[in-house]
Amino acid sequence: MLGHRFIHFDPNEGTKSKFEQLLDIFTQLLTYTNGDAAEALSWLSELDKQYHLTDDDYGMGDFIDELKENNYIKENEPDGSFKITSKAEQTIRKKSLEEIFGKLKKSKQGNHQTFKLGQGDEINPDTRPFQFGDMLEQIDFTESIRNAQINHGVENFQMREEDLHIRENDFKTQTSTVLMIDISHSMILYGEDRITPAKKVAMALSELITTRYPKDTLDIVVFGNDAWSIEIKDLPYLQIGPYHTNTVAGLELAMELLRKRKNPNKQIFMITDGKPTCLKIGKKYYKNSFGLDRKVVNRCINLAAQCKKLKISITTFMIASDPYLQNFVQEFTETNHGKAYFASLDNLGAFIFKDFESGKRKTVY
Prior knowledge:
By secondary structure, the protein is of the alpha/beta class. The chain is built from ten helices and 13 strands. The strands form four sheets. Strands 7-6-5-8-11-12 form a six-stranded mixed beta sheet, with helices on both faces. The protein has a three-stranded antiparallel beta sheet with strand order 3-4-13. The chain has a two-stranded antiparallel sheet with strand order 1-2. Helix 6 links the parallel strand 5 and strand 6.
């Protein structure tokens, strides 16, 4: 019997290099500085002074040199300013994905069932006994032969129906997703930064889809007084503006993007922290920040109903818990037959990823 095995403990084994440690902090700071490398480096220098992140052997100058050597930043020759590269943008997305999934593994939130169709192209490790109606190509012959040998012996080999076992398939759905992000001024009001967690979730979701589900599509729409599409590479630089919340414009653009997608499975994820307060009528804006204006609300409800007819589900992630907003969200959600979560900033990523992942696969018997 093998007992305990003792080996020499090396405190440095498995630890990150000084560059990797500083890079983790630097990429986090880039999210808060909207991709401004110079400002992120300035913040990092202040943190270094306070917490002694560097030492005599490796200083901030060495870190900046390595950033340039490894193509994370590039220097503008005329004025000496720094700008992050596409490699740095992807690194931010990867680290956001790692951060979100790290929280997701610890989450105890429930799962959501899906009724979407897909292609059964991924084998499930579990098996079960054969049942009438199962397809022949689903038979796991290795397991079935083993059962036959156990049940009837090797010398007089025979295989009967009760020996057969089925290897089940997971249906993997192809999905077209539009992620709507509210960039109205309220996303940084009241001393709470709500745009940074929303950006992190968007970057993590985009990295997940492009790497794990390459056949899926993801469009990102931001909305304030108006709505417009942004590219994945633009996410680190996303900022809020002095805008009202034109949810109608965001929904209209999302629907237009999804109409162009040939995929039968279409969904909208909307991250917002407030009520719709703005409409564009012709060339003029109709704005009302006080209470729930039925003129604005009714337009949103009508679009929710249109999405339902087009089989576009809408999942709303409300980063606010004001009681009067719950009534609007409930009416909006019931009209679309979608879903709604009143999510805190800490569990926003867990909610979105669980909802997205639950719609990706369904075990079919």
